[in-house]
Design goal:
The chain is α+β, with helices and mostly antiparallel strands. It has 2 domains: 160 residues, Beta Polymerase, domain 2, CATH 3.30.460; 130 residues, no CATH class. 46% of the residues lie in helices and 15% in strands. It has 13 helices and 11 strands. β10 and β11 form a beta hairpin. α7 packs across α13. The radius of gyration is 19 Å and the shape is globular. It starts with 6 loop residues before the first helix and ends with a helix.
Length: 303
């Protein structure tokens, strides 16, 4: 079996990314899993990649998503443990072994009653030895409201072969809508940074009115869940208020130094950008987000 990566590729990536060897191996395992689903003839049209992995490997975000791959599954009727086991099982292709029946959880309560799935404990064959890696593949039943009109290609130079392939994913508009909902309901720094990146680098491809409409449609479907009701978000106008909440922005500012050192893993190229533009500065992130997304928030505040 051919190894999924090589020592030479890992050495180059250490210098290029600044990530540790263990983090790079997790990236390899994650990308190999994404490739498996993207190229699977029976499942590639059902699994839709989203989140940070889509941003970093398709839309070229400098924030590295190390160990999580998030998917929407387009056929909720078949989102059951046996089906997911069949979809995710990999028998040694490219030296990569994955047996989800040995290490998965199927939790119907994670998303307020909607089926979800996550898995870890992946064996990566490298240099003749298997290494257990803790990555997570999360799958949620759902729908894609804004199918892309262009082909999307996933790229990871760490993969020894077939390192670029077509993938089923979200448009920038729908990804932005999900990030807005994520930041408003659970203020994780990665959501805010991702929205700043989309605004800075992809503004020409984003329709902010369409993003507002997608937020409304998604909120209509999931707005009664605990993630919103527990913090008083009951209508789209509440999302607009929550987005720019002063206490959330203050908490982000106060914890920024710690976050950049632990959770927000930026490529060296981002750190080298001019001080007025780099996303490693929380003031830039806040300014870019509030300025660019203001029209979207204004539209939401009217509903």
């Amino acid at each position: 079996m051919e190894a999924p990566t090589t020592d030479e590729l890992l050495d180059d990536a250490e210098a290029r990314t600044g990530l540790a060897r263990g983090q790079l191996l997790m990236l390899v395992a994650k990308s190999a899993t994404v490739r498996h689903l993207a190229c699977h003839p029976d499942y590639r049209d059902l699994f839709v990649l989203k989140g940070g992995t889509l941003l970093s490997n398709v839309y070229l975000s400098p924030r590295q998503s190390i160990k999580d791959a998030d998917y929407t599954y387009l056929d909720p009727q078949t989102l059951r443990a046996p089906e997911l086991e069949r979809a995710l099982t990999i028998h040694g292709e490219y030296g990569f072994h994955l047996a989800p029946e040995e290490a998965f959880s199927f939790d119907r309560e994670m998303f307020d009653g909607e089926p979800s799935f996550s898995m870890d404990g992946i064996a990566l064959g490298l240099r003749g030895k298997d290494r257990e890696l803790k990555i997570t593949v999360s799958v949620r039943a759902g729908e894609r409201l804004d199918p892309p009109t262009e082909k999307l290609f996933y790229h990871d130079p760490l993969l020894a072969c077939d390192n670029t392939f077509e993938v089923n994913g979200l448009t920038r508009d729908e990804l932005s809508a999900e990030k807005i909902l994520g930041w408003c309901s659970k203020p994780l720094s990665k959501h805010f940074v991702d929205l700043a990146y989309l605004a800075r680098e992809h503004h020409e491809h984003i329709d902010r009115a369409n993003v507002a409409d997608l937020v409304r449609r998604k909120f209509k479907a999931e707005g009664r869940s605990r993630r919103y009701t527990a913090i008083g978000i009951r209508r789209p106008a509440d999302l607009a208020r929550s987005f720019a909440d002063a206490s959330k922005l203050r908490d982000l500012s106060e914890s920024w130094e710690r976050l950049v050192g632990t959770e927000l893993l930026f490529l060296p190229s981002e750190r080298a950008k001019p001080s007025a533009h780099t996303l490693t500065d929380h003031q830039n992130v806040q300014r870019i987000c509030l300025e660019f997304w203001h029209p979207t928030l204004d539209l939401l505040s009217r509903t």
